[in-house]
Amino acid sequence: KHVAHPPSPFSAPARPNLVAVRDERRMATPAFPPQPWCDHHWISLERCSAGRGGRCGGVLEGWGLFCEPFAVGETVALEQKSNLRHCHAEVIGDLLGPEAGAHAGRYPVRLLDEGAGALVHVEPKKIARVLRHDQLRVLIMADTTSYRRMAKTQVGRQDAVLEIGSAWGECTRILQCHAGTIVGVDLAKDLVEESRRSHPQCRFEWLDFVEEPERFRALWQELCRAGTLKVFVDVGGDRAAPDVCKVLSALAAAAATSPALSQPPLVVVKSRDMAAACSEERCSAEGRLLDVSGYWAKVAAQPVPKSRVQQKKHQNRARKAMWACIGDGVVDPRTSDCERWTARKAAAKQLQVRWADVERRALLLAWRKAAAEAEVQRAEGHEGEGCCSRGAGLVLRRFLPWLSPQPS
Predict the structure, then answer these.
(1) Contact (CB, 8 A) for 271 and 308
(2) What are the mean pLDDT values of the chain's consecutive 10-residue runs (408 residues total)?
(3) Which among 40, 132, 133, 156 counts the fewest CB atoms within 10 Å?
(4) What is the pTM of this model?
């Protein structure tokens, strides 16, 4: 029979159970930011039904929330074949039947902005529903086309829009053609300056609402006074979902610190990861998430932390990329740090060149000495004429690259 012996004090220590450690780390409940806009309906356009619309009037995926049928008194957006042309109208009658003659199969609408009061008849495929302000919604989408379609149809002259992540200002320009007031906000100073040069008619602000809450609240209050506030968030469509959730949570928290600041009735978010996560959630026919808290806990949870070695490698790669971008001329707010780092790099390079010159001169002297010894041995007849001593040949073959002039 096998008899269990006590472990020897000289035996190797037991190896840790790596599988158990990994499972324990995965089972640990990760911290995630609080859910913002709990009173809003969270809707995924990826889970919404299809409908007719767009420039060509074809079937669009996720357009069922904005297509026919339309009720009398609803505000709608008319298709103008351009993202920069604005036209909102009010439905004043039901869909016309065959007895209407040439207007059969169309909705009678009255224009609200350009040509206000004019009566026109429009096909249903050229009409998009404008969501009501008394129904709070958060719209989640994955692509830029849907994001800009929301900017074209869901914003009116009475609205004030705050765009988080304006980048080069392309979508801000579209919003400016439809909204009464629009402000684009971005963290990158160079992008803000480029946007101001490209679109001087738009307003762009270099603002970090996490680090500058007072300034952000002042901007939020200014937009609330200008009209009905609507928020568009695009911090990078390929950005990880936890990072986007951090932005949304910080945005809502900064606005909720003051009771005088109203909450936006419409928040439009572009994120591939958040839209993809909606495919596994229970939704209604219009794409509304039935368990928002569970969905938020899933997409906002931080990934399992990596080892310290992996984190250090990741930080080193990020630091090298940052300094490489700074070396290419990208403006960075930490100007003093950049100048100090550039000066240190230049000093290190000069020192390296000086050391190389000293070593090159020393090797040149060693080669000359070996060549002189070879000449003396040849003169004494120890070796054949035209031959070099073994020591001089080794020096020559080994250090010939150092003797040649180095490129600057």
Answers:
(1) no
(2) 51 53 51 87 93 85 91 93 91 93 93 85 94 93 93 95 94 95 93 94 92 89 92 89 91 76 90 92 91 93 71 74 59 56 75 78 79 80 52 54 50
(3) 132
(4) 0.69
